[in-house]
Amino acid sequence: MKNILFPPRNADRSSPSQPSPPLQLLAVVCAGDQGLFTSLYTPLAQQLPREPMEWRRTYGRAPKMIHLEANFVQFKEELLPKEGNKALLTFPFLHIYWTDCCDTEAYKGSVKEDMMRWQNSLRAHGSADWVIVVVETNDAKKKNKTNILPRSSIVDKIRNDFCNKQNDRCVVLSDPLKDSSRSQESWSSFLLKLRTLLLMSFTKNLGRFEDDMRTLREKRTQPGWSFCEYFMVQEELAFVFEMLQQFEDALVQYDELDALFTQYVLNFGAGDGANWLGSFCAPVRSWSGLLLRRPIDMEKRDGIQHGEASLLDLRSYLFSRQCTLLIFLQRPWEVTQRALELLHNCVQELHLLEVSVLEGALDCWVFLSCLEVLHRIEGCCDQAQLAANCSHTVGLWAYATDKLKSLGELCGLVSDKGPTSEDLNRTVDLLAGLGDERPETANSLQSPYKKLKEALSSVEAFERHYLELSHAAMEMYRAIGRLRSARLVGKSLAEFYMRKGDPERAEAFLQEALKSYVSEGWSLPVTHTRKQIAECQKLLGRTEDYLQTSALLAGDVNLSSEERKHFCQEILTFASKSTDKCSYSSPGLHFLIIMGAFAQLTRLQFHPATASVHSGADLQVELSLQSLMPVSVCVQQLAASIHFSLEHGGTHGRSKGTQKQTNIGTVDFSQGNLSACPLSSSAAGPSLELDEIQDRSPSDNSLNSTGMVCKNTHLVMRRHDSSSSPDTPNCVSPPTVALDDGAHMLKVQDITLEPGSNSVVFTAPSGDPGTYTLRQLCATVGQVQFVLPHIYPLVQYEVYSQEPLLTVEPLSGLTALHHGTSYSQMLLVSLHNNISVKMREKCDSLLSIQSSEKVTSISLPPTPPYHTLEFQLEVLCIIPSGSDRPANERLTNGEVRHRPRSYSHPDTPMTAIDQRMSIDCPWSIYSTLLALTFYIPFKTKHSLLSAGNRKYIQVCVQNVSDVNFQLVDVKLTEKQHASLELHSLNTKAQQLVCSKQSVFCLWEVRWKADLPSCLQCVFSANFSPLNQDISAFKPFHYHFQLERVTTLYSVQAEILPAAGEQHCRSGALCGLEVCITRLTEPGENEMGEESKADSDGLKTTKLMYEVADSSSNWAVCGKSSGMVSMPMLANATHKVQIEVMPLFAGHLPFPKIKVLKYLPHTAAPAIQPDPDSCVENDSLSLLDKTLDDQGDTASIRSRGSVHSVGSGEQQQRGLAMPRLEPFSPGQVFNHSHARQVLVLPATDDHIMEVNAT
């Protein structure tokens, strides 16, 4: 028999890697035959928790599956709950009475009375959850065969006496120790009943307990309410959940207690304090840290229960319980996160509550707590998990390092002189507050207690432990990619080394920290770190580095003026040393420092502003410098190095009047922060230094291609974290500055730079023609030279001395000639056959022009130097006819003259023609090639019209331009047949063609003998814009060719009404008679493979006809298409009868009748078919249907294409097959093309039934 364990201090949970047994099992009180229960206890205790039960909770919470474990205890009166006792852990959830009585006398004599006493006791204490178990055994039957009643009668008596309305409270258990099916079934039923009753009782009492707890929490605003009492109540609920292994619900209870207490502390800090908080404001006497190796710290729990716990005790106990549950939930990394928040919050809460704490005590508590949490996590995770999740623990390592450093500074363990007597007394007081080491860590060599005690014992031990923790934290930060945090720990380590007198190691860590501050734009940390670096550099004797850092600090606005003057004076003092031994003309003896720390270039101005002068002219450069020094500085020399290049200047450069305006005269330079880079600059990186590159033709200097090149790719493509731009004053480690010593320099001697804006004027060299680029700026102060390595944006000026330059601008109609010296020369313009050049009326009268067939000469007047001569030329282009190809000719420069090609321009409906013109200058060996684009204002098209055997040619001239034209002398001629007459039917001699309008011209073709099969026609006219003189008319020609103009067949159709009808009616069948007549004898080109001789020797050809109605007015009944054999004789006729049905009434147009040529498979195709397909497009829209598979029909496969006719085996890929080919326009004349027929409505006879009442 087990006893109830309370308080739950004996539960062994020291091994969190394995789930431990519950804190307290559900209490089940057993009465009756204790010997009987003892025999059944073992199987009952083992099998009860095996099967899970569904636990349905109130308030809509999700159901869960739980295993019930019970603590079976013997019935005693004192175990029953007293009135007012609402404890849940000691509450008996179920009472069981055990009996195996099978004798009536025994039942009446003793068992019944015992049951009555048992039930009265339960009723007196309000316990309504009970059950009576009657155990049936075969041994009892054998012993009392004469006096026993049937088992059912005993059970019935018990139910009648005690279970009148609750028959389920009496359970029969048959032979529970036997291994039979009946016993197993009875045992299973009993266990299910026991689980159900126990769960019902637990749910009911738990809900009552939660309601009481909520009621108690709602009274928290009343006087006398105690948080400690409420803490014990809600923790009891957490114990119950933990007992059921519902660790998440148990954790919620502690989180609610944590949040409630935190809110009260915050309210206290805001002035709204609770009375019970006074017990937590007592001075802290112990700072032994967290204790996480016990599942329940009973000492601290008792202190909370009696209201004697301090703030640290409450927080320590609460976190230890949360830590235990989180480890059970296999969430160890959340423990580290919560621990870090707890340690920071506890420090703040102690300040809010104004708790008296010994100086350094909190640091000891935080240090011990960090190591305790880390050791607890190490105990439940292996090394691989710790390494993979170091991001969760590195915060505790860094916090412990920081607190150990604070303790070292407090106890005098950091200074190089060692601790004083006062420091030793303080150390003794701190160690006394730690108390004795806990038994759980007494045998551990690396316990937090031992580490702290050893670290505070001596300077060497402290240094060893502090360095170990610092390097461990830095390595973890680097492993997870948090370089900023790693450098922050390194900066703290640098301060430690500075106190220890080791500036060399300190500087390395300070430089790493400075990188992060500069890249992220933290100005104040940058200033503070630079001061520390300057101190290290001064101690190490690094003069150049110290001067660079001092210059940065002297210009740092975050420092006071006294500090800035101090660092500036450091520079000036060093610069004034041994000045007589050094000269600014010997740069090898100077220290080079980035100028951005000394002064900033804000503006540069050219005078003149064009920054382009001819050779020998005066050019001044004015620099605006912003001095960052707090005092006036005398500069012995200010020089700017210049790079000279012939790339753009000289005789091949641009002239003064037409040069590309890249130099605007004034260049403003961006201003950066003086102490740290802004965030935008660190994110975007250094500015791009771009330069334009051009590829020009060596013959005519025309632009072939242009592009951009980045000149500082090595800065743009680097890692932004490694360093900052060397051109800025914020660089961490300034790179080695290379000072250019070119032949061209801008220099000024002995100037004084005042704090703020300064203006310096240079006289720029302009002797040699070319491009001058300002590269560097250098200010010399004694032995120190401040250098600006790159001037960006790019600053250039040009010096030019040019030969005469010809510029042609065809779009504006302007030709400009620039002379560098006096010239009186002649220009030669080479032209195509169909273009000409003439001078405009408003041009200079001194110009003379002489034109020949292919060359136009322009004589120029004398012109003074650097003078621009402008004149305008008109270039005319004759519209090409498009037929004749001239022989290859060459221009004056030897280039082959190419025939211009016309093309459609995307921006205008007019057709464009490109022409080329060559201009030769006597002062240059190269020709200037000019591409000209002309637009044809007309679009012309022709058509052949037929009326029986008569033929007409129609020409349409469409004006696609925005100008109105007039046409005269409109003619049409045929070039090959003199006997052919083209009779004009045009009545007007002059035609007006308005913009976007068309004019149609018509001629009748007349012939004497036979009509030729092919006509070569030329349409000609003269045109000019409207209201122009006769001299303005220009010729226009249009060549075209007409083939197959002879009419071969005529088609006539008649629609006959049904028999007995005079007119056709809608819905009634009508007859369509199609008559196809051959009009001419066959020609030579027709006597080919498409003709075939019949049995009589008569040549025939096959035609295919098709009747279709696209307007849906007719329905073709029967076959709508077929093939006919047509004799190749004049006046040969073939008739076809087809039944059609009109669908509507009115004057309906005749159905459309098509006639196609049927070519056998041996005929050569007019257009070679696709080798992968046996389909030929006939450009006609046929019906989407399949004709009958007969000898005179074709199989129509798809719309717009006609397949060959034949069997499936003949239609294999690659075989020649029959095909259909349409006739050319004019070869078939349809007489019924525009005819209509009258269709009457159908007779409408209806029977109407009328009822009259």
From TrEMBL:
It holds the Pfam family TRAPPC10. SUPFAM superfamilies: TPR-like (SSF48452). Its main location: Golgi. Residues 27-335 form the TRAPPC10/Trs130 N-terminal domain. GO terms for cellular component: cytosol; TRAPPII protein complex. It is found in: Golgi apparatus. InterPro entries: TPR-like_helical_dom_sf (IPR011990), TRAPPC10/Trs130 (IPR045126), TRAPPC10/Trs130_C (IPR022233), TRAPPC10/Trs130_N (IPR056913). Residues 1013-1240 form the TRAPPC10/Trs130 C-terminal domain. Keywords: Golgi apparatus, Transport. Residues 1191-1214 are annotated as: Disordered. Residues 1195-1208 have a biased composition (Low complexity). GO terms for biological process: early endosome to Golgi transport; intra-Golgi vesicle-mediated transport. This is Trafficking protein particle complex subunit 10. The gene is TRAPPC10.
